[in-house]
Design goal:
Order of helices and strands: EHEHEHEHHEHHEHHEHEH
CATH superfamily: Aldolase class I
Number of helices: 11
Strand order of the largest sheet: 3-2-1-8-7-6-5-4
Shape: globular
Helix content: 40-55%
Number of domains: 1
Bound molecules: 2-phosphoglycolic acid
Strand content: 15-25%
Radius of gyration: 17 Å
Number of strands: 8
CATH architecture: Alpha-Beta Barrel
CATH class: Alpha Beta
Structural class: alpha/beta
Length: 252
Amino acid sequence: MRKKIVAGNWKMNLNRSESLELVSAISKEMKDIDLKNNRVIVAPVSVNLASVVDSEKDNRIECASQNMHFADSGAYTGEVSANILKGINVNLTLLGHSERRAYFNEDDALLKQKVDAAIENNIEIIFCFGEELDDRKAENHFKVVESQLKNALFHLKENDWKNIVLAYEPVWAIGTGMTATPEQAQEMHAFIRNLVKENYNNTIAENVSILYGGSVKPTNAKEIFGKPDVDGGLIGGAALKADMFVEIIKAM
Ligand code: PGA
């Protein structure tokens, strides 16, 4: 059975002590929450990842990288590789976040290389994708999402999908306060699950967790997460405050 997941993407926020404070506050506030079928993940800034991992001794909060390079090592100033992440016990990374796509020119071809490197190194991927506002206005959103998945993921082998989590994040909803309605999220998530089924099989489609991201807050999380094909959320702004983040965890 697929798991429900709430993941916090801290983006370029919080220094080391602020990161440690936040993770410790989240950990304290969620100590009574049963995580048997649920996962809680945070993605701190890369220089603080090791400290946050080391501080999370009971492993109830998993740590993810926000990004990863496709090469194992080499002359790629400022980047981190799978091997470097594994060296600090991080086995999970976001890839394809819309901010990486928009500000760092990450296209489908590059993301495919990163996906392959992560899979080869047994690093689990939270793969982010989603349409821009113009795509939705032109009613191209299904086509855009399909091509993002096809170009970066649908070459994977069936067995690789155990290391894939999908995160649908309509770009127009990220950091804007404009959330997709629960119905819009469900419609797209059902479409995505069906695409996985068509390209692979029903078992893989039913087992892959599909998260929604884009202005999820304590006030709207329950309704969005209540939809049958929405398996949790990737949270930006509201992940930076322990009480808000834990409210969202409770909604899952
Ligand atoms: P937001 O960000 O929750 O601030 O909209 C979501 C994301 O970028 O993953």
